[in-house]
Amino acid sequence: MAEEVRPYCPYYARAMEMIGRRWAGAVLRALWTGATRFNEIADAIPGMTDRLLSQRLKDLEADGLVERHVHHTRPVRIEYRLTAKGRSLGDVLFTLNQWALEWITLEDEATRPRSS
């Protein structure tokens, strides 16, 4: 028998808080596609400030979705990677991306004629 879906689930609510923060999805996507260093992630997300990126990386690290690796070289190199918990969101992020491509219209697309 299928599990009953109730109007509120604290697990779902917490998951949405984690990935639903402003820019969190963009950071996860950038990491998923291979960006690992701060500047690579920043370059992959137009319009996001360095301060907000730094905060979002800290939030995602605290949530256990991202891990920070410090390489003790000269100069010091810091890389960010998805944890197993973060990588397990891959199907969710892909499904959300497919939904967005089908249902979301961006403002600049609304005025541009579609090619056949």
What does this structure look like?
- With 116 residues, this protein is mainly alpha-helical.
- It has one domain (10-103): Arc Repressor Mutant, subunit A.
- Helix content is 54%, strand content 10%.
- The protein has helices spanning 10-20, 24-32, 38-44, 50-62, 84-87, 90-103, 107-111; strands at 66-71, 77-82.
- The longest helix has 14 residues, at 90-103.
- The chain is globular and about 55 Å long.
- The mean pLDDT is 92.
The mean pLDDT is: 92
Domain tally: 1
Number of helices: 7
Please give the alpha-carbon distance between the first and last residues: 45 Å
Structural class of the secondary structure composition? mainly alpha
How would you sum up the global shape? globular
Briefly note the CATH topology name. Arc Repressor Mutant, subunit A
Can you say what the CATH homologous superfamily is?
Winged helix-like DNA-binding domain superfamily/Winged helix DNA-binding domain
List keywords for this structure.
transcription regulation, DNA-binding, transcription, two-stranded antiparallel ribbon, 116 residues, mainly alpha, 7 helices, Arc Repressor Mutant, subunit A, single chain, WH_DNA-bd_sf
SSE layout and pairing:
Blueprint lengths: L9 H11 L3 H9 L5 H7 L5 H13 L3 E6 L5 E6 L1 H4 L2 H14 L3 H5 L5
Antiparallel strand pairs: 1-2
